[in-house]
Design goal:
- There is one protein chain.
- The chain is α/β, with parallel strands linked by helices.
- The protein contains five helices and six strands.
- β2, α2 and β3 form a beta-alpha-beta unit.
- The longest helix has 15 residues.
- It is globular.
- The termini are close together.
- 34% of the residues are buried.
């Protein structure tokens, strides 16, 4: 199981997700451009000492990411999906894709992903923090695929 961040805006969220990936054995893909200079103090603080065990792949563009991850399903976490993540059948080599905190992903990304899932929320709630969303869905995906190490 892997995690991908599409043009992330907030360094501490990226750091938290890198730390999550390190702890759970899930490689993290960063799809550029980021909305902050990679390596900022906020990012380093949230990654802490997990940078040595984290597997991070940086991609210059969406196209580069798609090319380098051919053969792996991309499962988009989005409020625009109709299927709850708990009803989705995850596979071992899926990549959980999260959009920008400020704007999600563009329509062309929505059109080519292999699956779209949502986290059901209370009426009137807009969205859950991207790092918390990654944690919730990664936990379910690992549970389904016996991926806990």
């Amino acid at each position: 199981m892997e995690i991908a961040l599409y043009q992330p805006d907030i360094a501490p969220n990226v750091g938290t997700i890198i730390r999550l990936g390190a702890c759970m054995g899930a490689p993290v893909h960063i799809i550029e451009p980021c909305g902050f200079p990679f390596g900022t103090k906020d990012l380093r603080r949230s990654v802490m000492d997990y940078k040595d065990i984290a597997e991070v792949h940086r991609h210059n563009s969406w196209e580069d990411f798609v090319e380098s991850t051919k053969g792996q399903r991309k499962v988009l976490l989005t409020t625009r999906a109709s299927k709850p993540y708990t009803d989705f059948a995850f596979s071992n080599n899926d990549i959980l894709l999260l959009g920008r905190e400020s704007a999600g992903v563009p329509e062309d990304v929505h059109e080519i992903v292999d699956g779209r899932v949502l986290i059901p929320m209370q009426q009137g709630a807009r969205s859950i923090n991207v790092a918390l969303s990654a944690s919730m869905v990664l936990g379910e995906a690992l549970r389904q695929t016996d991926g806990f190490k």
